[in-house]
Amino acid sequence: MSKRFQPTPEQVALQEARRLKKLQTASSRPIVPAVDLRKGKIVERPWVAVQEGREPCVQRITLMTWNLLAQCLVRRDLFPTSDCLKAAEREHMIYHELLSSSADIMCLQEVDRLEKLIPVIEGGNYSHVFAAGPRKKHGLLIAFRKDAYETRGTHVVHYDDVNVRVEGSECARKGSSFRTKNIASIVALGKIGGNDGEGIIVATTHLFWHPLYAYERARQAGILLREILKFREENGMSHWPCILAGDFNFPPDDPGYTLLAGDPLLAKQEERLVYSRVVHVSIDPSVPLTEPKAAEDDEDGDSATKKVFKNTRLAQEEDGLLNPTELSELFSTASRPRSAYDAGQRVLQEHGQAPARCGERLSMPAQRLGAFEPEWTSYTHYWKTVLDYIFVIDPVDQHSTVLRLLQPHKTESMDPGLPRKGVSGSDHVSLAVELEWHNSQ
Fold it and tell me: Which of UniProt's keywords are assigned here (predicted)?
């Protein structure tokens, strides 16, 4: 009979070291929570084919944008018809919708509870870049497939600190009406295993929420456009496409949308810009308070807060706020952004389909850019509107094609208001698009 194997002390020590290392590795690895499909039930939305892809193409991507509704902003009085406002009631619906999109890149806004979300997206094979404004309890997150992309550069735009003029006082050079603490996150993503220098620049943002502040939102959108193009040039990526995706907090008939898309401003839009050229106490501390500032800092506010300007004065020339002509110059660029949904749904209309769009509800002529955006991207008891977009900026030597769009929710699915069990875990509708680029002939 052969003798029983007896490991040497050195072998025992080696085995123990391996065991401890294995345990250490397992304990340091994030535990990926399984998505509970019962709690995470949502309305499944089909992809709508817009145009056929063709080879060869420079690159093809699927991108999603979604405002998750930060738990720190949830209040029962803002969502009286919702049946799922607790985090435990919403989170699995959010996880399900994110992962079922199968997007290459996700642009997310109002992201909080990172300790819950990050393990989910990492378990779905995504890496991420997160950024938040000063003293904000929620932020922006860009997730991307870790086997397809790697970061080649990042930049955070703090709208409050960016100049729009070269002359005047420090305050006047910024031309701001309100210190909002809003930001944009810009990430350059290089394609792993692709051609040398192949990639895409993605920016996501969440612009100032208050409906009356049309000027400040337009200023922020103009800064975003200028900064992403500047980032592209400074990093030697002039042949890379750019994506601007997020919650812009303005509808398609707003001057901010018109300026970003490149349509001429209408007279009523100029009037709205002029009306909103005010200076808030956050810019000028000498402004007399008409309401406690703490109440006005609430990011969602209430119906009364949204109807009148609080704690402001009229802007003076020395404040440096841009007039409508100067604002138009801020957006002046040869690289004009194009909305993926507006462009894609126009193609569907041309092919005899009748996509649900916002233009008819807003009495927008069909030729106005934005008239073919989805009918709704935010739907609650108190507000039903379009606020979320995916804009594409093509390189000068390439042009993009919209291949597919994720169909927005039908109105009857969202009644009486989001978030809603079995429908969506957020008050916003996620948007997603498949895009393809070809070299220009």
Answer: Endonuclease, Hydrolase, Nuclease
